[in-house]
Task: inverse folding
């Protein structure tokens, strides 16, 4: 069911988007994702009045827990990670819908128990047979769980109700495994019922790329190869891999965030105007960008990857990647990756898109910088423009959400001297509402059956098509470079841009 999209119809702007009767089953309740993101977001939605009063939440895991034990786990997660304030009345009402089903994923009896539980909830909480299954588990287990859901008649909805499945990246390890994963899910759930979470698409600032581009006259005329010199998309994190060695080793920066978050950002920046903001129209335009991407022939000269070595960060000494607990001492997994891509379209011909992502970098910042060409002629002396760089529009995704426009201005004084100045838009200054967490928006959209912010399998596969040759090249090449923790990555990344006569921004 496609609900009216608020971006499409301004009349709908103030209609509250509240989920109808439904419930959610989480597989993997003991994991980080469920604890830090999913459970707190559910509480935040309840606190904002966006969940139905009888909302039910069922945990499924191999633990000897009763409902109250599960409620305690959710309580701790909410207390620690929820965005909105804790309200006893909201919590109490929500917790009445908590159930726990113990069992392993291959345990038929446990799935029968799950079926009884959801039937009971339909009767007592009025969930109307509407259920989302959240697979907060490693992708290797998607197949087992999906098959169990089908076998125990949990996947097919009764007439008039819905069943949906939510999966998290990584959607595969390469193109072949992504296709296999998709086929597995498709055996059980029709494509419209599969919601792939790329949490970057749930971020307000990411959605604002569309608003900024297509609601204004200002930017679009210069959004092309005539004016844009290059685009830099940076996702820098100051944290290391923390307790996630098991997940990260063998995955690395490119698979972890470039394949999904950064390529999605690139698609939003580069795409043509969609005919509407419904899922299909957006997919068509994003897909065209991904299809047009060309990887430069010299992967050796146009990419860079490295691992962090020990160093200093925030005044503390930190260990290198290979010394992190749980990482194989000869691991070749990269914690930093930078790639150059070309979008072979009339709009973007000759404009490189530089994407970089890394852990233990100088600071946490995600931004898209559109760097413009220099003015064709500068009627000033060379000394007057010594401190003038290129104009740039920087979309700050996080943490200081907003936008900066950089341009040259005369320095006050008797001589003509031109220097860069910034014009800033800060979310915090312009709006009183705080931005919801990405997971709040995305979980609500799952419950509403509203798919525009979820990548389709075509996009996932096209993204792997872009990365596969690069990953293969890196694999053949062997050991990655290194960079000291707390810096902006390896020398090879700087050299990669220097070859094109450019430099990375130091955000
Ligand atoms: C996740 C990655 O998708 O995004 C993590 O798996 C990364 O490695 C995280 O730390 C960063 O998310 P955010 O929203 O803090 O930028």
Result:
């Amino acid at each position: 069911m496609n609900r009216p999209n608020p971006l499409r119809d301004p009349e709908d702007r103030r209609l509250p988007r509240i989920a109808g009767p439904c419930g959610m089953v989480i597989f993997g309740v003991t994991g980080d994702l469920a604890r830090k993101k999913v459970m707190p977001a559910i509480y935040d939605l309840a606190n904002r009045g966006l969940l139905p009063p009888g909302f039910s939440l069922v945990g499924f895991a191999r633990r000897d827990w009763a409902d109250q034990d599960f409620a305690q786990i959710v309580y701790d997660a909410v207390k620690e990670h929820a965005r909105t304030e804790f309200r006893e009345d909201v919590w109490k009402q929500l917790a009445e819908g908590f159930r726990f089903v113990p069992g392993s994923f291959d345990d038929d009896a446990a799935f029968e128990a799950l079926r009884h539980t959801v039937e009971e909830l339909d009767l007592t909480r009025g969930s109307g047979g509407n259920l989302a299954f959240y697979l907060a588990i490693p992708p290797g287990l998607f197949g087992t769980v999906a098959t169990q859901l089908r076998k125990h008649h949990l996947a097919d909805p009764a007439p008039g109700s819905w069943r949906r499945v939510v999966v998290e990246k990584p959607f595969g390890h390469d193109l072949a495994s992504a296709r296999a994963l998709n086929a597995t899910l498709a055996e059980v759930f029709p494509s419209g019922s599969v919601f792939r979470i790329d949490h970057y698409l749930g971020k307000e600032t990411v959605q604002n790329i569309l608003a900024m581009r297509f609601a204004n006259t200002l930017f679009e005329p210069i959004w092309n190869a005539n004016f844009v010199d290059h685009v830099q998309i940076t996702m820098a994190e100051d944290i290391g891999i923390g307790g996630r060695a098991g997940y990260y080793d063998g995955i690395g920066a490119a698979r972890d965030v470039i394949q999904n978050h950064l390529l999605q950002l690139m698609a939003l920046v580069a795409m043509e105007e969609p005919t509407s903001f419904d899922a299909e129209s957006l997919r068509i335009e994003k897909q065209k960008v991904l299809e047009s991407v060309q990887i430069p022939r010299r992967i050796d000269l146009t990419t860079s990857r490295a691992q962090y070595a020990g160093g200093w960060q925030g005044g503390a000494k930190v260990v290198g990647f290979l010394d992190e607990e749980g990482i194989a001492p000869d691991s070749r997994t990269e914690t930093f990756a930078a790639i150059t891509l070309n979008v072979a379209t009339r709009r973007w011909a000759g404009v490189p898109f530089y994407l970089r992502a890394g852990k233990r970098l100088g600071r946490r910042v995600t931004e898209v910088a559109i760097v413009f060409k220099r003015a064709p002629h500068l009627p000033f002396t060379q000394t007057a423009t010594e401190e003038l760089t290129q104009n740039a529009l920087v979309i700050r995704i996080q943490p200081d959400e907003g936008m900066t426009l950089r341009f040259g201005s005369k320095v006050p004084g008797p001589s003509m001297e031109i220097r860069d100045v910034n014009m800033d838009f800060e979310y915090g200054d312009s709006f009183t509402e705080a931005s919801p967490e990405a997971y709040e928006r995305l979980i609500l959209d799952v419950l509403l059956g509203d798919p525009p912010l979820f990548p389709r399998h075509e996009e996932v596969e096209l993204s792997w098509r872009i990365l596969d040759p690069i990953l293969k090249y890196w694999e053949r090449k062997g050991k990655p470079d290194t960079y000291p923790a707390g810096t902006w990555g390896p020398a090879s990344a700087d050299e990669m841009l220097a070859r094109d006569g450019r430099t990375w921004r130091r955000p």
Summary: The mean pLDDT is 95. The chain has two domains: 23-168, 201-433+458-498. Residues 237, 256-257, 366 surround 6-O-phosphono-beta-D-glucopyranose (CB under 6 Å).
